[in-house]
Amino acid sequence: MKQDYLVVHGAREHNLKNITVSIPKNRLVVFTGMSGSGKSSLAFDTIYAEGQRRYLESLSAYARQFLGGLHKPEVDSIAGLSPAISIDQKATSHNPRSTVGTVTEIYDYLRLLFARVGHPHCPNCGREISPQSAQTITDTIFDHMLQATRYPQPARFMLLSPVVKDRKGEFTSLFANLTQKGFQRVRIDHQVYDLNTDILLLKNNHHTIEVIIDRFSVTKKNLPDRSRLTHAVETGLDLAGGNLILTQVADADLQFPDKPKSMTDTLFSEHLACPDCNLSLPPLEPRNFSFNSPHGACPTCHGLGSLLRVNPEAVARLGLNSGMIRSLEYRYHTTTSDLMRRELERFMRKITCPACQGKRLTPSSLAVTVHHLNIAQVTDQSITAAFAWVTHLASNLTARELAIANLIIKELTTRFNFLNDVGLDYLTLSREAASLSGGEAQRIRLASQIGTGLTGVLYVLDEPTIGLHQRDNLKLIATLKHLRDLGNSVIVVEHDRATIGSADHILDFGPRAGQEGGQIVAQGTPAQIKANPKSLTGQYLSGKKKIVVKNDHHITMNDHILTITDCSQHNLKNITVDFPLGKLICVTGVSGSGKSTLIHTTLYYALLQHFGRMTHETPGQFSQLKGTEYITRVSLIDQSPIGRTPRSNPVTYTKAFDYIRHLLAQTKTARIQGFGPGRFSFNVKGGRCEACQGEGQIKITMQFLPDVYVACEVCQGRRYNQATLEVTYKGKTVADILNLTVAEAVNFFSSHTTLHHKLITLKLVGLGYIKLGQSAPTLSGGEAQRIKLAKELSIKSAGHTLYLLDEPTTGLHFEDLNQLLYVLKALVNQGNTIILIEHNLDIIKSADWIIDLGLEGGDRGGDIVTAGTPRHVAKIKQSYTGQFLKKLLH
Hints:
InterPro entries: ABC_transporter-like_ATP-bd, ABC_transporter-like_CS, ATP_grasp_subdomain_1, P-loop_NTPase, UvrA, UvrA_inter. Keywords: ATP-binding, Cytoplasm, DNA damage, DNA excision, DNA repair, DNA-binding, Excision nuclease, Metal-binding, Nucleotide-binding, Repeat, Zinc, Zinc-finger. It is found in: Cytoplasm. Belongs to the ABC transporter superfamily. UvrA family. This protein is α/β, with parallel strands linked by helices. The chain has four domains: 1-91 and 436-545, Rossmann fold (3-Layer(aba) Sandwich), CATH 3.40.50.300; 100-123 and 286-420, ABC transporter ATPase  like domain (ABC transporter ATPase like fold, Up-down Bundle), CATH 1.20.1580; 134-270, 2-Layer Sandwich (Ribulose 1,5 Bisphosphate Carboxylase/Oxygenase), CATH 3.30.190; 550-641 and 779-890, P-loop containing nucleotide triphosphate hydrolases (Rossmann fold, 3-Layer(aba) Sandwich), CATH 3.40.50.300. α5 (134-148) crosses α7 (226-239). The protein is elongated.
């Protein structure tokens, strides 16, 4: 069969050097090479961007009106381009209502399942309830009356039709209408009135009105007429839309008094109602199980499952009176200022909603079960456990229920299978999407795409192995091959050895990063790449180049130790963990084994609490934190963005831009014009372009697609007005300087010690290729994390700082790892401690100490499998990390 190709001619986007390349279609193709060598520029910014642009051009004229400013990639032509879908590391929705269940659409199918075959129960007494027909209601009432004849005195009953429930009004027209229909009496707020008299109600008061349909005085000799009772029941149900009340009257009077001593009501309904609690429930619909709908959301937390409340400890630390709590909460809920709200959140903490206990739904929705579980209990389980529950449904539903639910079960099974295949079986469906790592979010979207069953599509992925243990990589690779075998082309930007080795075709970019990259130095099968002397990747794959491991540090119990005891948050099994200080420590384990829960949720927030830093997050459960006297500061360096708008960039985040603005303000032109450093800020009026307010870009809301940023037509993306751009430093304007790469800027500012130091740290962490003014939304999670690391490096350290990092190797080539290790070791040598959550074996083998969690993920994780030096861990047969380390070390 003839091989089809995707042919790119003259690609020049970013640092690409006029690349022309043929990429085989319907194959698994890996783009690899050093960070900044041009992989993403070709994969995402050229191939995918052009695919998206062509797709938009095929839409209606209404859609095309947005395309005038859309950037066309710098490329001569692309032939053989299929519809393209990008699955990158960008975090999913930050909306707290978005969960793993909603993102994967599994929750939508669960809502449908519970609405169609759910068993409703009374939320008060727990009794299972079901709709009743008019005949069933008649029979039940007749039996009730028959039982009352056991007593010598007559039993008196009224059949009431509830027409108004707790509403304001005078209801004069209702009374007139009822009189016209022949009704004689009504019960208003538990008092009987004659409709032939004037009934005056207070207009602004709430009233409950029930029409008396019929009255029965029952004895052994005077049983109710069956046909009369049936007619009364049907009339009452029809009048109240399916609801009816049977009232037993207790009074010494033989008649029916207007104000009897007591009335006992029993509610009947053609819908859902509990006769014991007189509680009527809404009919089961999918919206009743949605925490995004007022029909299903808990009224206290509005479906969020949590509430923000002022933290009394934070108020006390500021020396404020506890009486300020109410005032602060009132200001938080009434202010319209986002800035004020963010400021107040520093004094608040998130608590579980006391009404729904974090389940997000109304009591009536949580009282519906399928196979013994309510919908929140299903979503609180791991995907493995929830999948097992779905699997057992077929043998536990009735034949009628199975006929209804069969298609739903098939859809759920398919989606659960795909989540298992991408190594996410440890997640819970109720997990907030915002809490997912970039790798987890990407693999969820990958699983969702496989579920669509599309063919003939070009998929472009960015490091899907992020966050995966080596053990789980094979399952992910099988998933990528399955996507290919459906008839799709799969392009993966990747640095993982196993993924590169499993590719049908490899493109190796280089030879270095930034302006020294942008070329394809080698391409072919894995074997051909290994044999190519020009390929840096091939040299590492073949073993010609290696990351050298220095001898293990000898760690004794005389060293200072940080200990956290009895950690039991999420799946942690009451573990006590020792962290030797002044070392490079790797926390390892399969996905879902509890690494992030231990380091981020528990240790980090416990230390913040210890140092008195305010946050609305509460630490995970633990008993004691010992050894804190040996630490002066804690810093979390994660992969969250350094900013969410084009205003944020590497030099503003690291404060290097402050020095650049001062240098520009000291130039002769700036002094003549009276320009101070503020003139060169794009965040305030004066020097910036007011058309784009200094962003250099205009945001276009696409409605049916993600927002698109296009270059400002006034300043052409340069951010500043013409007067500001007339000021130059060494021949470069402020816009030119922001357009320099870090590597270029290091040379350009070599004579300025402080500024040079800040820039050199960015280069040291492998970011020499990024531009000084590169906007935050275009940075990957790994790049954002390394910018934060560079900022920490630029601060003069007095030692005794604890750094917490989550997968700092994200986006790094083998060659870049040596430089990262050098930086990390330099921090440790200054007397600091670094704790990494890491899966990269080259980093793990270079650690001073390893803490391996497991044995599995989810409920079967949360234990310490082993702790020790890399050579010690490699000897532990039960440790999955040890098994892979053993192969590498030997």
